[in-house]
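hey m, so remember when u said the tokens were messed up on ur end? i reran from scratch. heres the input so u can diff it against urs
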Amino acid sequence: MHKTRSGSILVILIISILTITSSCKYQKLLKSDDYELKLETAIKYFEKERYSRSISLLNSVLPVYRGTQKAETVNYYFAMAHYKQGDYVYASHLFVTFHQTFPRSEHAEEFFFLSAYCKYLLSPNTGRDQTPTLEAIQQFQRFINRYPQSAKVEEANNLIDELRLKLEKKAFDMAMMYYRIKNYNAAATSFKTLIVDFPDIKYREEAMFYAADSYFKFAENSIFEKQQERYELAVDAYNKFIRAYPESKFKQQADEIYRRSSSKLKEIKLSQTN
């Protein structure tokens, strides 16, 4: 038992000494002017997944190798280290810059894809601002346009589809929020815009029904002078819905919207003739 404890302490001491020694060598190298050794060591750190140290060394040699034959190598590892470390915002920028600076590089196509993939990784859940999602879609589309024969095109298209589903869900949730808080004017407009912007949305049936219902409820809560126009919008939305989904699960509710809207319109027109 005593020997085991002593052995453990010895191992800890050895590891501590090696760590301190390694740290001292790293700090000394960081301050040195041996740029060749810095680059060589930075690559070794990268291969050992010690990205923070690799980035620090590469950062110190970037200006030295700018415009030289080794510039591509330095920038390659610098961008990849940030990507591997999870700094996707800066990595995306570095990938784009690399592609612009070294368009003939064997890594140019890969980095253009990764610039978009970083934005994909930054895309938040549907409850938050979807600007990164839009940026990712745009960047993937640029990649497809730039490299239409790439083996990555199928993956890029699949990721675009995934991101678009997120935008659709965000837009639908926003429209439903307006509906739930009884802001029927905003709800109707949002559902209508949703259907136009995303014609193949999986929520299309629900969106078309709630558009009709929102117009109807908006008309109900309007002043008399505005009701005719708004009930007519409800009827028009109903007709579009029932043509698209004649056997919808919402058919009974939709028919009631049409019946009541039509009845109200008859009353309004009758009052206008008297």
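this time it looks ok to me. The chain has three domains: 31-82, 86-167, 182-274. if urs says something different then somethings off w ur setup not the seq
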